[in-house]
Amino acid sequence: MKLPQRSTMIFFGAYILITVLVQALISFGILNAFWSTLLRLGAVYAIVSLGLNLIYGFNGQFSLGQWGFYAIGAYVAADMTFRWTQQGSASGLVILLLVVLLVGVSFLGVSWVLKRIPGLDPLSAFALYLVGVFAAAFLAIMLGRVLIDPASSILKSMPDALATQIVFFLAVLIAGVFAAEVSYLFGLPILTLGSDYFGIATLGFTIIVKVLLDNSDTMLGFEEMKGARGMIGIPKIGSWLWVAIFLLVVLIVTRNLLQSSHGRAIVSVREDELAAKAMGIDVANQKIITFVIGSLFAGLAGALYAHINGFLHPNTFNFIKSFDPMIIIVFGGLGSVSGTLVVSFIWILVLEGLLRQVLPEGFETWRFVVYPLLLLIMMLLRPKGLMGGTELPYLRQILPPLRKKEAKPEEVAKAGGD
Hints:
The chain is 72% helix and 0% strand. The protein has 15 helices and no strands. The mean pLDDT is 86.
């Protein structure tokens, strides 16, 4: 049996040690609620920023829609856990689980049909996908109404704490997949645009999501979300251990993806689309895959965030805040997983924690002046970012050794004669 590499063992050992140490500090009250919340938010920011780094840093797509998928994940997960803890119903969990499953099946079905209709333009393909989504959602709601009561009975037969944790875990996963499916549907028509237009389209998406959340109780019919007043009653079960586990999974997935053949294809699209296409790489497919995975990470992060403070407000997801993960990945270094991880915690602990403790009250109103100045200084002094070109050993891609060129027989004979 092949033993893990030394760098892998060191990384996992250090990660587990830090996780256990932080949990011990929280459990014994050495870290108060303020700092423990900031640490969890740092991990959440790392997850959403890793998704954006995958989209922009590694694939070269300038996206400002990450915050919109973050918001979708937050509200979707919050609605499921709210219905369970406040209403004792698994309705949100059952229906949304069926929605993501059946919509995924519809995507596969429409994709199979499109392969047999060559030359179909992107808007027509998008219309077919949209019809499939509506049909799948309608069927999911019909089936869900039948399964709500049995699912609720099964969960109620368990201890309350265990049932709540199960609902929370499933809600986070479903919210992430839901955000990924929305990104797939949204990305079909706009990924054909150039980089600048793609950025504008994704920014528009974030604004649309925020407006829908402002009117979620009236326009969308989700009264428990309370629209512009903000959603309350969300269970605060986003513990440090849960957040650390999901961050570790995201790091592993990102690392393994980037070191695979798909990862090399993703990076090749960033470097030169024409050259990548000439080498037989499906550029459009690589773009959509990267966009979906990055949005999946954003949905997971949003779901975790919703259960840290127990309160959601649409203003948290306005387009100004959508620049936060962009600034983080630029500070850390575009295309640097380690830089994104480190700067995410620095961003939260220093700017949102330490400076609030040291500087006088009212400093937070100057943040939109301080952030651009810091970004400008970083770009002038270190354009590659804080850790640009540097990775932790486990996250660094180890290339196979070069094969030695075998000498030809005549060269060997000539060398012997000399």
